[in-house]
Amino acid sequence: MVTAHSPRCTHFGECGGCRRQDLSYEDQLEAKKKYLEDLFHRPVPLHPSPDIWYYRNKMEYSFGDVYPPPEEGEDDILLGLKERGKWYRVLNLSECYLLSPEAPALLEAVHTWARNEGLAPYNVRRHVGFLRHLLVREGKLSGERLVLLLTVEGSFPRESFVEAVESVYPATTILRGQHNGRADAAILEEVKVLTGSGFIEEVLLGKTFRISPKSFFQTNSRGAEILYSLIREWIAPLRPERILDLYCGGGAIGILLADLCQEVLGVDVVEEAVADARYNAKENGVFNIEFVTGKVEKVLRDWKGSVDTVILDPPRAGMHPKARKAVCEMAPPRILYVSCNPKNFARDLEKILEGYEMVRIEGVDLFPHTDHVEAVALFERKPQDVSTI
């Protein structure tokens, strides 16, 4: 029975960041487990997140302007998350329990800096203004922290920005990015390092991973260790020879599986992610792995070799139809699918896994206080019916 629960955050109900703080964490897990079991028509074990507060290692905050416009001299800048159901409205955050206890002070310091410098927030409807997003990444297990200010092109007071950040937040590297397009997204067209290395490192299952601003990395580090441990546990007894790791990002899954097989090939469309993956393999002493940059559908179209295990970890939107078709035609003996959007996972399942049997599926809650949940499933190709040959 679901019971009422008092939200921890005073912004709950207005903020679009957390939608389920009105449920206890136990009730959240029960709802997600039921969702997975209704979707896949079978029992689905669900692993809870090790941390339910301050669990995220990445946040993208938005700048916005005040509407209606305030009186002259009043605060006209907003910095926080989008209001629930209003993509064009930003909610100032005085507290937040997703990233770290220091995050609200960082937001306040950057907010004050922007106002003192007279910088205008970008208006997503009129497409005017300068300040767009504040991207923050934290190594939960390494302690390293990255801050990136995303603006349109133009000069800005670099020294005072660095000073504002470092006065309240232990950033190990600070960057400035530019995005001049109209899309309301944290798109990094150009990145300049202001302090530090320009990246952070995180530790998962004893291995160290470099994370650049554009690289994909699971947003819940401790939860990712549970997910990747499951994948290793499932793959180890299968003794694969060649693993194809599609949508590999910074290479975490392939690198963590490399000691279980003879060869791994990772594929990702983001050049910076592939650069991180190659660096990560070298730094961790993994030499039976290669990475290529390109769209999955194109790489598979030109694929000539054999493979016995395909890892699929596509973005939230799921696989491109051409990529689904290419995997179908490849027909590997087994497929392991990782998804942060089980609904699209189920859609892809119908398209490419008709000749496969789902032998295992489990969920990992990487997103407490939201409706999202991670699912991982292992499929094996069904034996061909000789009577139909």
Given helix and strand content, the structural type is: alpha/beta
CATH topology title of the largest domain: Rossmann fold
- Kindly report the name of the CATH homologous superfamily of the largest domain: Vaccinia Virus protein VP39
The geometry reads as globular
Distance between the termini: 53 Å
Contiguous runs where pLDDT drops below 50 for at least 5 residues: 385-389
What is the number of beta strands?
17
Reported CATH architecture of the largest domain: 3-Layer(aba) Sandwich
Helix content: 25-40%
The proportion of strand residues reads: 25-35%
Q: Kindly report the oligomeric state of this protein.
A: single chain
Characteristic key phrases:
disordered C terminus; seven-stranded mixed β-sheet; 26% helix; eight-stranded mixed β-sheet; alpha/beta; 389 residues; OB fold (Dihydrolipoamide Acetyltransferase, E2P)
Question: Would you summarize the structure shown here?
Answer:
The longest helix is centred in the N-terminal third of the chain and has 16 residues. Strand 5 and strand 6 form a beta hairpin. It is globular, with a radius of gyration of 22 Å.
Describe the 3D structure.
- There is one protein chain.
- With 389 residues, the chain is of the alpha/beta class.
- It has 2 domains: 25-52 and 220-388, Rossmann fold (3-Layer(aba) Sandwich), CATH 3.40.50.150; 58-203, OB fold (Dihydrolipoamide Acetyltransferase, E2P).
- Helix content is 26%, strand content 27%.
- A hairpin with a 2-residue loop joins strand 9 (200-204) and strand 10.
- Helix 2 packs antiparallel against helix 3 (158-166).
